[in-house]
Specification:
The protein has 9 helices and 11 strands. By secondary structure, the protein is of the alpha/beta class. The protein has a single domain (7-236), classed as Acetylglutamate kinase-like (Carbamate kinase), CATH 3.40.1160.10. A 9-stranded mixed sheet has the order 4-3-5-2-1-6-10-11-9, sandwiched between helices. It has a two-stranded antiparallel ribbon with strand order 7-8. The longest helix has 25 residues, at 69-93. The chain is globular, with a radius of gyration of 17 Å. It binds uridine-5'-diphosphate (UDP). The site of uridine-5'-diphosphate has 24 residues, from helix 1, helix 3, helix 4 and helix 6.
């Protein structure tokens, strides 16, 4: 299999791990993602993954219900650790080694994240699963993905979602919405499209990290994206 990317940062939302049930962790979904990831590692791609925690807890939502925002954000970060362990276990089951790295120290659950530890793991053929987002409250795992992608020198940030790319409007609400094959960061901002939070988008733009949005729930799509077959939407400078 020919690949166009050597090293990727894959962002998976917590909600995507929940599958149809909408909360918690759907083991079938974890197994499907694990197989797709193993396929591209076998093809020689170095893979880092950042997982969200929205299927378990979000600091902002907690704050709206009276939880201290900083404590709530730490709860959200812990949710990303739970999801990271679930993916790591799913990868074990398909014979793909991985290394869970935590932005906040919590050995032996994972090793403390550093750029070098992550690169070393990838070079050893392991999937580097980076949890706790940035490790700071008031950020999101989208921003964590942008940051980690830039730090480890990823060729692209792949955002695996449940829609097949970026549309002019939310395709689940507006049937007339049309999909972009390519779009610039500025156009996303100008049109107010909700692809990622603004902090993450700006970090990618300022550091020239392309974003590729695609539907991760269709088996084989991750392979398509890394082999350069048309799939999803590419965001560029
Ligand atoms: N979070 C945080 N700092 C970070 C990343 C995440 O405080 O750098 C917390 C925040 O509360 C967030 C939660 O972790 O709501 C889960 O992350 P996110 O909402 O990005 O998950 P996703 O929407 O991708 O499932």
């Amino acid at each position: 299999m020919k690949t166009i990317y050597k090293r990727i940062l894959l962002k998976l939302s917590g909600e995507s791990l929940a599958g149809e049930q909408g909360f918690g962790i759907d083991q079938q979904r974890v197994a499907d993602y694990s197989e797709q990831i193993k396929e591209i590692v076998d093809a020689g791609v170095e893979v880092a993954v950042v997982i969200g925690g929205g299927n378990i807890f979000r600091g902002l939502k907690g704050a709206a219900q009276g939880v201290d925002r900083v404590k709530g954000d730490y709860m959200g970060m812990l949710a990303t650790v739970i999801n990271s362990l679930a993916l790591s276990s799913g990868l074990d089951a398909v014979g793909q080694p991985s290394q869970v790295l935590t932005a906040v120290g919590m050995f032996p659950i994972g090793e403390q994240y550093s750029k070098w530890r992550a690169i070393e793991a990838m070079q050893q053929g392991k999937v580097a699963i980076m949890s706790c987002g940035t490790g700071n409250p008031f950020f999101t795992t989208d921003t964590g993905s942008a940051l980690r992608g830039i730090e480890v020198g990823a060729d692209v940030m792949l955002k695996g979602t449940r829609v097949d790319g970026i549309y002019t409007a939310d395709p689940e609400k507006d049937p007339t919405a049309t999909k972009f094959d390519r779009i610039t960061y500025d156009e996303i901002y100008r049109r107010g499209l909700k692809v990622m939070d603004m902090t993450a988008t700006i970090m990618c733009k300022e550091n020239n990290l392309p974003i590729h949005v695609f539907n991760m729930d269709v088996k084989g799509n991750l392979r398509k994206v890394v082999s350069g077959e048309p799939c999803g939407t590419v965001v560029y400078q």
